[in-house]
C-alpha cells in the first residue's frame, strides 16, 4: 500500500484552517484521489458534531445512565453509547464510501444495506470510549480507523475487517472534554482540530503533533497491581522511584483511553494496560482501540507495543480481540518493555 506523501504546510487562511479545508487541500495534492476518503471523513466529522452536541447536554436531555442492556464486551451499555453507535452507523452506511463496519457495540460485522452503494473503505470504531466517565462528566471519546477493502466489489466481510494496523489508511479520535477536539493522521503526521460550536467547525489548533522522546507521567490503573506480572509490578515500582537520571514520574489515570493517550501525545510519558497475570490477556480491544491509537502514536514519533511486538504488526484473528497496551514516548516504552518477561 503506498503511504500518502506528506501534504506539507496547509496554506493559512484568514479564518484559520478548518478540517474540511485540510482534507480538501490534502485531496488536491493526491492525483489519484477520488474524493471518497474526503467524503467518508466528512461523514465522520458530522457524526462527531452530533455526538459532541448530545454529550455536552447529556445531563439535561435524560440520556445519562444505563440502558439495562449489555454489549458484546459484557459491559453495561450507556444510553449515550447506543446513541453514538447509531449516529455513526446511520450516517456512514448511507454515504456510499464503506463496504463494512466494525463497532465495539455490535457483535457482528455491520454490513451496508443493499439500497446503498458498497464503498471501497472499511470503518472500525469505538463510538464512545470510556463511557463509564459519562455520569461523572469526565472526558470520553470516539476512536476510528479506516482501511481499504480487500475483497472484490460488493458486500464487505470479516476479511475486510481483520486487517493489521500497519495497513490503516487513516485513524483518529474525537475527545469530548473541556473542549472537543478531533485528532487524526494518515501516517505522515498527526494534526489536531478544536471544535468551535458557535461556528460548527473544527479548526486546526495543533498542527503536526510530535510526542516528546521522554515524559514524566505514567498512566496505568494501579488498582490492578495484584493482577500484574512481576515484571509490570517491578516497572511501576521503578518508575515512581527517583534515580540519578530523573525524578519520580507522576501518576495520571482518567480511565478513558482517548483522554489518557491525548495527554500522553501532548505531554509525553506512557500509557499502559498490561496483561492480566492469570489470563495473560489485555483488556483493550485491538481493532478499534489499540490499533488506531498505536497508528497515531507512531505517526507522532512514539512507540506502541503489546509488550512483545509492535501493536500495528498484530494480525487480527477476531473482531473483538483484546491486546495488552504499552504506548507513549519511545524512551518510556523502551524502559517499560525492559521489565516485561520474555
Ligand atoms: P479500567 C474504558 O472502559 C476502557 O475501555 C478504556 O477507554 C480505558 O483506558 C480502560 O477501559 C479503563 O479500564 O479497568 O482501568 O477501568
Q: Would you mind describing this structure in some detail?
A:
By secondary structure, the protein is α+β, with helices and mostly antiparallel strands. It folds into 2 domains: 19-206, 2-Layer Sandwich (Fructose-1,6-Bisphosphatase, Chain A, domain 1), CATH 3.30.540.10; 217-340, D-Maltodextrin-Binding Protein, domain 2 (3-Layer(aba) Sandwich). The protein is 27% helix and 23% strand. It is built from 8 helices and 17 strands. The chain has helices at 19-28, 36-56, 79-93, 158-161, 230-239, 257-267, 286-299, 330-338; strands at 66-70, 76-78, 98-103, 110-111, 121-129, 140-148, 170-176, 180-185, 190-196, 201-206, 217-219, 250-251, 270-273, 284-285, 303-305, 322-323, 325-328. Strands 4-3-5-6-7-8-9-10 form an 8-stranded mixed β-sheet, sandwiched between helices. A 5-stranded mixed β-sheet has the order 12-11-13-17-15, with helices on both faces. It has a two-stranded antiparallel sheet with strand order 1-2. A hairpin with a 5-residue loop joins strand 1 and strand 2 (76-78). Helix 1 (19-28) packs antiparallel against helix 2 (36-56). The longest helix is centred in the first third of the chain and has 21 residues, at 36-56. The model has no long low-confidence stretch (mean pLDDT 93). It binds 6-O-phosphono-alpha-D-fructofuranose. 6-O-phosphono-alpha-D-fructofuranose is lined by residues 129-130, 132, 221, 255-257, 260, 283-284.
Amino acid at each position: 500500500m503506498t503511504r500518502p506523501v506528506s501534504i506539507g504546510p496547509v496554506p493559512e487562511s484568514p479564518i484559520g484552517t478548518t478540517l474540511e479545508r485540510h482534507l480538501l487541500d490534502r485531496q488536491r495534492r493526491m492525483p489519484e484521489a477520488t474524493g471518497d476518503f474526503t467524503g467518508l471523513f466528512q461523514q465522520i466529522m458530522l457524526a462527531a458534531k452530533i455526538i459532541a452536541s448530545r454529550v455536552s447536554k447529556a445531563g439535561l436531555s435524560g440520556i445519562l445512565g444505563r440502558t439495562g442492556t449489555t454489549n458484546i464486551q459484557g459491559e453495561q451499555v450507556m444510553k449515550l453509547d447506543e446513541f453514538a453507535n447509531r449516529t455513526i452507523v446511520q450516517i456512514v452506511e448511507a454515504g456510499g464510501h464503506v463496504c463494512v463496519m466494525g463497532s465495539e457495540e455490535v457483535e457482528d460485522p455491520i454490513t451496508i444495506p443493499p439500497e446503498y452503494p458498497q464503498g471501497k473503505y472499511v470503518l472500525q470504531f469505538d463510538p464512545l470510549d470510556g463511557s463509564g466517565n459519562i455520569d461523572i462528566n469526565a472526558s470520553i471519546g470516539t476512536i476510528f480507523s479506516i482501511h481499504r477493502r480487500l475483497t472484490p466489489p460488493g458486500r464487505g466481510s470479516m476479511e475486510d475487517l481483520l486487517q493489521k494496523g500497519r495497513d490503516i489508511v487513516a485513524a483518529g479520535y474525537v475527545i469530548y472534554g473541556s473542549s472537543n477536539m478531533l485528532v487524526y493522521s494518515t501516517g505522515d503526521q498527526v494534526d489536531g482540530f478544536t471544535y468551535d460550536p458557535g461556528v460548527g467547525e473544527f479548526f486546526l489548533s495543533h498542527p503536526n503533533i510530535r510526542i516528546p522522546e521522554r515524559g514524566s507521567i505514567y498512566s496505568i490503573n494501579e488498582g490492578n497491581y495484584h493482577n500484574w506480572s512481576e515484571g509490570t509490578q517491578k516497572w511501576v515500582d521503578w518508575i515512581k522511584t527517583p534515580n540519578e537520571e530523573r525524578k519520580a514520574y507522576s501518576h495520571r489515570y482518567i480511565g478513558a483511553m482517548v483522554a489518557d493517550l491525548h495527554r500522553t501525545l501532548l505531554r509525553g510519558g506512557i500509557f499502559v494496560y498490561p496483561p492480566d497475570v492469570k489470563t495473560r490477556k489485555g483488556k483493550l480491544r485491538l481493532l478499534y482501540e489499540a490499533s488506531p491509537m498505536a497508528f497515531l502514536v507512531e505517526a507522532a514519533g512514539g512507540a506502541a507495543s503489546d509488550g512483545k511486538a509492535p501493536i500495528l504488526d498484530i494480525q487480527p484473528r477476531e473482531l473483538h480481540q483484546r491486546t495488552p497496551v504499552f504506548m507513549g514516548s519511545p524512551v518510556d516504552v523502551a524502559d517499560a518493555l525492559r521489565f516485561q518477561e520474555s
